[in-house]
Amino acid sequence: MKKVRGINMFIQEQYLELARKIHQENPVVDAHFDLAAEVYERHLTGESGVVEQRYLPRFEEAGLNIVVSSIFINNRDLPELGLRKALGQITALKEDIEPVGDRIRVTKSRAELDENLAAGRISVLLSLEGLDPLGNDLSLLRTFYDLGVRGAGLTWSRRNAFATGCCTAGQFKEIPGGLTELGKEAIRRMERLGMWLDVSHLSNEGFRDVCDLAEQPFIASHSDAWAVHENYRNLTDDQIREIAGRGGVIGLNACGYLTGVMSEREKTEREGAAGAPEAAGQNADAALLRLCEHAEHLVRIADPEHVGYGFDLCKGLEETTPRIHFETEIYDVLAHHGEMVKLTAALLQRGMDEATAKGIAGGNFLRYYRRILK
Ligand SMILES: [Zn+2]
């Protein structure tokens, strides 16, 4: 059988063709991408048209219909600059994509989402990766809602006025603590406003608090499976069942440190492997296979309708602004959104049925957003 040349040698052409067809004919979603933060930083250096130049061709290659852009604030900008930077990111992203509004738009409602799908336009949904920009002023939640923000996680790994995160980011050591009273009130208000709750980056204790309180289904937009790789950013089987049982969706994360694979450089340094191209190719294969294992585990535990893609591709933002010092090098298992098709092909080749692959590629997250958005 003919195999595709290039980095992932094992994928057969027939599965790539099927995956391309699935991506072009069905909803495709990336539930987590640090786009606004990158656009904001690049605008500061004088660049414009960031999304058009750097991302739109790959988005379109992947048949992407919805991308959720996080609003992400660095540790070093908190507390003073949190609000300013969050507002700046929202404005920068809107300005950046305005000239290509026929191809991609910030989207605030179910009706707009459906309109974009019918017109073949990409929807950008905004989500706060941590409520830190609010400080301890919950009235600002409504302000962000009015600006178009439709989802939020209470925290990005760290501890803030609302909750404790899953771990000290960069080291992945668990820190104790759950939701504060303000965090609980935030969830009630989000549910009233029609915003989704994202529990990626939340502590295990916080997760239990959310389960006690939440009336609406919630998501983990970019988390993998603890059973495949033990990392406090990943979900235990019980957590996976809980999210799925309530009608939520789990987004498969393609970051090397969550999937449990090292970058080629790191592998070479640690294991002294020869830097030959074949070795690099083998490592890329191993990384993609590991990502498949996470996807397959999530599907097994959650059922197929509750798994999606939330790749958290980090390279672009890291180029402009390194977030923190990670113990392991940042490594995206998928080099860019165009490679989404490759992952879907690999899953199909490993035996995933077509209906499951369609749901994971985007149908499941679309159904969820349509349920939560007004
Ligand atoms: Zn994240």
UniProtKB/TrEMBL annotation:
Any GO molecular function: dipeptidase activity
UniProt entry tagged with the keyword Transcription regulation: no
E.C. code: 3.4.13.-
Gene3D superfamilies membership: Metal-dependent hydrolases
Assigned keywords, A-Z: Dipeptidase, Hydrolase, Protease
Coiled-coil segments: none
Matching InterPro entries: Metal_Hydrolase, Pept_M19
PANTHER family cross-referenced by the UniProt entry: DIPEPTIDASE, MICROSOMAL DIPEPTIDASE
Name of the protein described by the UniProt record: Membrane dipeptidase
